[in-house]
């Protein structure tokens, strides 16, 4: 589904396109009924018939029924269907096409590429001659593409993925100096059958620079030392560059970059598991005919899943990895042949060339007479002193460049800096300690605090989170940030209306080094960092009702702010789990459990078990029972681990037996633990045991939140025994009770109620109930869509519309594959698929 981000502008642009159809003979208003299209006489009726929707639907898209009736999203097939009709039958141009897609969440390539536009149009679904709905013919798309791009010799390239040439960043310098032997080694690897080349070395040694130069050489554009290489560079028509740097890169972003380069932009908003297979297949398809060069810069900071993906790449893909850590042994276990290039300092002659080049480059941009004089002095120093500078910086290009900048910007004479550098030592720690140390000494205490805690964050922090971790108020934060900007330590960037702060990996590493030496501040900062996200969860998750240490965080609000900050929240949770921050992890899991049910069940289980163990160690028995029964037990049931679920639920119930049952949470949890045990027996087909437990608890007086859950399980029992009318009464009663504490995003409550309505042939009520599963129709998540599409498939199947039922059910299967393949509903969805096929 395409989300409409600017509904008003979308309607205006679509309206202009539809109006242009009036000039086409097929869409002139006719008073005589069209024999081919029986949906009406107006041109809107004809468009509606071709799309398989009502004319009122078209009017709502155009804003003719009022702005509030413009939908929040439109099915991709119908959206591209109407766009296809307009482009095929009118004179609307490529600018119109790009502008209308920019009002939606569909990723847009600018300037538009023929292969991208063609791939979009192939998703159109319109009425075909055989009365079915399908995509336009390739030859028809070819005709439209020729008009849009004015290509007299346009070739139909939509039969396979056609990538962009490359996405390489701009070269980092005007000339590439040195590394002759390293370049020759990489050239030999290029011509060998080995799939992977690892470039490793200290920060600042030029790993990224040499990888970038190699990539440009493979586009047929070498210069500097790479021109003088003895062996010619192979040419790659597809080169993909992925940069992880200090922040790391998520697996999703990694796949998005490859998908974009291979012309598969439609995959960008898909789930990770779906993208994983599609992107690999796209790589395999393309690399069968043309070799692909994939470069991952700073692979040592990337997600584990990226490493796994690289070890399973198809033949025809060559990979260059850069890493500060030597990952040779890690990849040797997978690849029989792998080249490793260990970058050391520049050779003396190369280093002298680099030194001369950097000084001359600085002179070209320097306007200060004093600084120019210092640079000229540096050019005229004796070869012996130049050699001492190279030795002092260990031939590290980054260190040499920083040294030149310090000579120009500080009052320190060149010879003195060289003597000081010589004392700094040869190790990476000592060398950068000296180079960054001069900046560190000039920084105020508040700036140093910010610098040290920058390493806490998984994604670049915003003002609130960064200031909170450093312990600064707004005024001191702004002063400190400005000083960091002045010293070129950070780069601000506005993302979705908020400013976030980026820093180079060497900056972050240096701050982290000082943090490790300042244990008292580190402890305080970590505590502030953790408390900030506790407060963040309180702000964005906690409800007024119900009033409980655990149930107060049930989902029921907009989760967009949670999703935006999730990478940093997850880093706090992982840190608390890995370092034994017991109190912090317990507080985090207490608040995050219900949110995790919608985004990652394995994480809910993993952190729930850890929190339960910590609660046990700290004597927090009630919380331990909550974690074992609901956080872990319920989640294990959802991923079909019935034995594990039963073990955790019974363990939680044993804990509760030792506690004061007069406490509301304890009393409620006992009842819910038994009801959940009953639900588990229902799932494994033992309805007698389930019924016996429900008889035990159904008349016990509890708070509304537990009543809601018990009624749902009772409804499940009735539904299993085909007592559908009784099930409807129980489900409706459960949903009514939940309104007493603000309602819940209970998917199964509405799903099972919808199933009961289907069984009673009350189809309109069933459809309305299934629509309730989508709490926010414009931002529905995958688990909601799984149940929704499966429910609609059951409804359509019951009505005998097996074609549409199969399409809806297939959507549910695809979502399950991409979200959590082991989810408990999977078997039911697959059985429905078999039934529909047999029908």
Query: Which consecutive residue ranges, at least 5 long each, have pLDDT under 50?
Result: 30-40, 152-164
Q: Radius of gyration, Cα only, in angstroms?
A: 32 Å
| Range of strand content | 5-15%
How would the global form be characterised? globular
Query: What is the SS-derived class?
Result: mainly alpha
CATH superfamily of the domain at 180-342: P-loop containing nucleotide triphosphate hydrolases
Helicity level, as a percent range?
55-70%
CATH topology grouping of the domain at 180-342: Rossmann fold
Mean pLDDT: 82
**With helices defined by DSSP (H or I, 4 residues minimum), what is the helix count?**
38
In CATH, the architecture of the domain at 180-342 is 3-Layer(aba) Sandwich
The rounded distance between the terminal residues' Cα atoms is: 28 Å
Strand arrangement in the largest pleated sheet: 6-7-8-5-9
Number of strand elements: 11
CATH class of the domain at 180-342: Alpha Beta
Report the sheet with the most strands, covering strand number, pairing sense and barrel closure.
Answer: 5 strands, parallel
């Amino acid at each position: 589904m395409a989300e409409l981000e600017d509904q008003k502008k979308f309607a205006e642009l679509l309206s202009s396109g539809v109006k242009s159809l009036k000039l086409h003979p097929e869409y002139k208003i006719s008073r005589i009924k069209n024999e081919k299209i029986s949906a009406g006489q107006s041109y809107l009726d004809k468009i509606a018939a071709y799309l398989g929707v009502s004319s009122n639907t078209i009017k709502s898209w155009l804003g003719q029924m009022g702005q509030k009736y413009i939908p929040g999203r439109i099915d991709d097939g119908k959206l591209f269907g109407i766009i296809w009709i307009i482009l095929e039958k009118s004179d609307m141009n490529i600018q119109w096409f790009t502008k209308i897609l920019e009002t939606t969440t569909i990723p847009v390539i600018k300037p538009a590429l023929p292969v991208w536009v063609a791939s979009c149009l192939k998703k159109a679904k319109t009425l075909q001659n055989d009365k079915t709905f399908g995509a336009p013919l390739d030859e028809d798309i070819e005709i439209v593409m020729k008009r849009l791009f004015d290509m007299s010799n346009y070739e139909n390239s939509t039969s396979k993925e056609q990538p962009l040439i490359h996405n390489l960043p701009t070269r980092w310098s005007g000339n590439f100096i040195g590394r002759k032997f390293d370049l020759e080694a990489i050239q030999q690897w290029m011509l060998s059958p080995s799939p992977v080349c690892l470039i490793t070395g200290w920060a600042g040694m030029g790993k990224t620079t040499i990888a970038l130069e190699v990539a440009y050489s493979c586009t047929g554009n070498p210069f500097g030392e790479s021109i003088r290489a003895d062996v010619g560079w192979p040419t790659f028509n597809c080169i993909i560059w992925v940069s992880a740097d200090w922040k790391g890169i998520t697996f999703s972003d990694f796949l998005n970059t490859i998908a974009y380069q291979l012309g598969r932009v439609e995959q960008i908003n898909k789930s990770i598991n779906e993208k994983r297979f599609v992107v690999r297949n796209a790589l395999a398809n393309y690399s069968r005919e043309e070799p692909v060069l994939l470069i991952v810069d700073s692979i040592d900071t990337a997600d584990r899943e990226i490493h796994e993906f690289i070890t399973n790449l198809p033949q025809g893909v060559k990979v260059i990895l850069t890493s500060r850590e030597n990952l040779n042994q890690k990849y040797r276990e997978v690849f029989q042949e792998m080249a490793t290039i260990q970058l050391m300092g520049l050779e003396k002659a190369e280093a002298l060339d680099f030194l001369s080049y950097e000084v001359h480059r600085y002179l070209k941009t320097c306007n200060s007479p004093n600084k120019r004089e210092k640079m000229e002095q540096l050019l005229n120093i004796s070869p012996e002193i130049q050699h001492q500078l190279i030795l002092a910086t260990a031939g590290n290009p980054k260190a040499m460049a920083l040294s030149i900048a310090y000579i120009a910007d500080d009052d320190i004479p060149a010879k003195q800096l060289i003597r000081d550098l010589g004392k700094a030592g040869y190790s990476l720690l000592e060398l950068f300690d000296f180079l960054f140390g001069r900046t560190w000494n000039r920084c105020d205490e508040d700036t140093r605090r910010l610098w040290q805690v920058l390493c806490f964050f998984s994604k670049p922090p915003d003002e609130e989170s960064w200031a909170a971790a450093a312990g600064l108020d707004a005024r001191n934060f702004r002063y400190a940030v400005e000083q960091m900007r002045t010293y070129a330590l950070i780069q601000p960037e506005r993302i979705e209306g908020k400013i976030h702060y980026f820093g180079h990996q060497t900056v972050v590493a240096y701050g982290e080094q000082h943090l490790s030496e300042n244990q008292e501040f580190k402890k305080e900062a970590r505590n502030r960092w953790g408390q900030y996200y506790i407060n963040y969860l309180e702000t964005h998750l906690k409800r007024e009702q119900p009033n409980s240490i655990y149930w107060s965080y049930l989902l029921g609000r907009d989760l967009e702010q949670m999703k935006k900050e999730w990478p940093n929240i997850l880093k706090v949770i992982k840190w608390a789990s890995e370092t034994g921050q017991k109190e912090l992890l317990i507080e985090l899991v207490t608040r995050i459990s219900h949110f995790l049910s919608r985004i990652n069940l394995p994480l809910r289980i993993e952190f729930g078990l850890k929190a339960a163990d910590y609660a046990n160690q700290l004597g927090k028995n009630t919380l331990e029972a909550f974690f074992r029964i609901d956080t872990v037990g319920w989640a294990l049931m959802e991923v079909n681990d019935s034995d594990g679920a039963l073990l955790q639920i019974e363990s939680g119930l044993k804990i509760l037996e030792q506690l004061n049952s007069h406490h509301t949470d304890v009393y409620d949890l006992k009842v819910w633990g038994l009801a959940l045990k009953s639900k588990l027996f229902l799932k494994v087909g033992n309805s007698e045991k389930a019924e016996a437990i429900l008889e035990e608890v159904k008349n016990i007086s509890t708070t509304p939140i537990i009543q809601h859950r018990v009624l749902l399980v009772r409804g499940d029992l009735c539904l299993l025994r085909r007592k559908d009318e009784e099930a409807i009464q129980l489900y409706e009663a459960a949903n009514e009770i939940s309104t007493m504490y603000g309602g819940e995003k209970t998917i199964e409550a509405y799903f099972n109620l919808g199933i009961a309505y289907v069984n009673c042939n009350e189809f309109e009520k069933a459809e309305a109930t299934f629509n309730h599963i989508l709490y926010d129709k414009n931002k529905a998540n995958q688990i909601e869509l799984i149940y929704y599409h499966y429910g609609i498939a059951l409804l359509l199947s019951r009505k005998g519309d097996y074609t549409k039922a199969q399409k809806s059910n297939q959507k549910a299967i695809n979502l399950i594959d991409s979200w959590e393949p082991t989810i408990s509903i999977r078997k039911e969805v697959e059985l429905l698929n078999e039934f529909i096929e047999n029908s």
